[in-house]
Amino acid sequence: MSNRFLNKIKNRYASKWLVLLFDVVIVIMTLFLAYLIRFNFKLEFDLVLVFKQVPFVAVIAAISLMLVNSHRGVVRYTGFKDLVNIIIGTNILATVLLLSTYVSRKFNLDQTYALSGSIIYIHLLLNILFLIGAKFFIKSLYRSIISDFQEHSKVLIYGAGNSGNLTYDAIQNDTKSSLDIIGFIDDNPKKIGKKINLLNVYSLDQIDKAFVDKHALSEVIISIQNIDPARLLNISTHLFNLQVRVKIVPPVQNWIDGDLSVQQIKNVRIEDLLGREPISISNPVLDDEYNDKIILITGAAGSIGSEIARRLTKFGYKKLLLLDSAESPLYDLQQEFKRSHIKRFEPIIADVRDADRMSDIFDKYKPKIVFHAAAYKHVPLMENNPYEAVRINIYGTRVVADLAVKHGINKFVLISTDKAVNPTNVMGATKRIAELYVNCLKGNGQTKFITTRFGNVLGSSGSVIPLFKKQIDQGGPLMVTHRDITRFFMTISEASQLVLEAATMGNGGEIFVFDMGKPVKIFELAKNMIFLSGLKYPEEIEIKITGLRPGEKIYEELLADGENTKSTYHEKIMIAKSKALDIEMIEKQIINLCQIRSTSQNFEIVAMIKAVIPEYISNNSKYEVLDETKN
Q1: End of a domain among 93, 119, 147?
Q2: Alpha helix locations (H) across 39-161?
Q3: Residues known to be catalytic
Q4: Domain extent at residue 255
Q5: Domain boundary at 114, 147, 180, which?
Q6: Distance separating alpha carbons of residues 204 and 208, to the nearest angstrom
Q7: Quick check: helix, strand or coil at residue 116?
Q8: What pTM was estimated for this model as a whole?
Q9: CA 612 – CA 609 distance, rounded (Å)
Q10: What would the pLDDT profile of 484-518 be if each residue is shown by its tens digit?
Q11: Domain identity same for 126 and 176
Q12: Burial letters for 172-209: b for 16+ Cβ neighbours within 10 Å, e otherwise?
């Protein structure tokens, strides 16, 4: 019964004519009150004359208020603009009464239309006071009725500046909001301890467990424009540890029609907590780079490959070739492109290890730019299947790269990983050898070979974020291999931007890396995801330490031993300056490694990998014995 009543109140709005009638009645009442005030609450004035003036004042009042459309406003949503309209409308009424009084006295007309100046001014002030007061009384009454049926959340606003106050106004003016603002948080010592809108301003240090329990604090809304990501991460981590939800106000340029609505205040996302500014690239040269080109993407159905494909659809390419051996994901991408009415693309089912098939594709389509994203990437699986890692990550790269040289491809872009740096596992080692092989081809023919190296990609298939989400959906626990394990993170969008930019920027032989900020602790990431899911750690979801997996590092790096960087025109993108290589010897070793058979023993294969890259030192792996033998 109560829910039906609540919904009826929420969905019912008063007629604009009823609102106008209500306002006019107030104007009439204030007219009598003005006379009483003027004569010290004694009936020493002509009451009959006042009654004669009522119809005239009522008509003028109705016209004045209709001119400013004050009757069209929904009373429960009364805001600043409505107040301005009331003030303008009542001033129009007062002006008309003054003019009618002047004309009546000047031309000796009916004194019904003549009011004394003092009465008119008192009436004006009373109208402003009572009309505004009535609106806010009804608004407050409505909120109190609704609040009886709603569960309120105690909220603090982080930021006691202009943005914070606009957020306060937006929440207070939203009658459907169930947020109860109890104060502000600010970093400015001059504001701390003061009051804004009669609410206390606190420092972040004052928000502790005792404060949260005392005030039943449930969430904090961060309302700071252009907040530094590292600062956002620190604030969020502090509040998450207190089991307080965190929301954030969008940038002012994203406000609808310049006004903030409560619906625009969103939960902080994992992407917001990377602790660094998002990488953003705007380069008009990209248009020229991809215009009228046939572009091949291997591994096109994967997370990075598909995002590269999506971004390339914005350019005027001649044809987009989407190659992958995974049928179902490639079919999904094909359907997505069809729904988006994307033209000039062709899905191709093929395996990069099949040299003849790949050669036929190059002969038939004659691509000019190749993005090589096809790879096996899961560390534990490749640790137990080194043959497959070599065949895909090394031999598959060799097949496509050699064809690029043979067919005079303009640019070949290899998608690599930070796990290729000082590798401790088979997957990372095979990706490092792939880097070395394309580096060996520098100067062969006209193809420019470019490598992009980056860390973990948020949201990619098999990455930690979807895995944690799945574990949360299942009720936990979240599995973390080590309490101190850290990783660099980037978004799929950033990764694809870097790859496209590298293809334009590269002149051949470069390994592009970029400033990914500080590495993120996976344990902290797990806790943050629990809180962002609206759950409590450890009461509702636990985190279980499982121990490092075979080949897994605690810390990842972006530069190998002997590498340093040189800057580019983009402050976040750098080029790794590698040490000199014995190209002839390395190329011979890689070709020899690619000739292994499926019958080869795992230890034999890994020993051959270690011979190519001596910096490959196994960690928490059965292959550590090979390092002992080597030493």
Answers
A1: 147
A2: 47-67, 80-106, 117-147
A3: 419
A4: 153-268
A5: 147
A6: 8
A7: coil
A8: 0.67
A9: 5
A10: 888 877 778 878 887 888 788 878 888 888 666 67
A11: no
A12: bbbbebebebebbbbeeeebbeeebeebebbebeebee
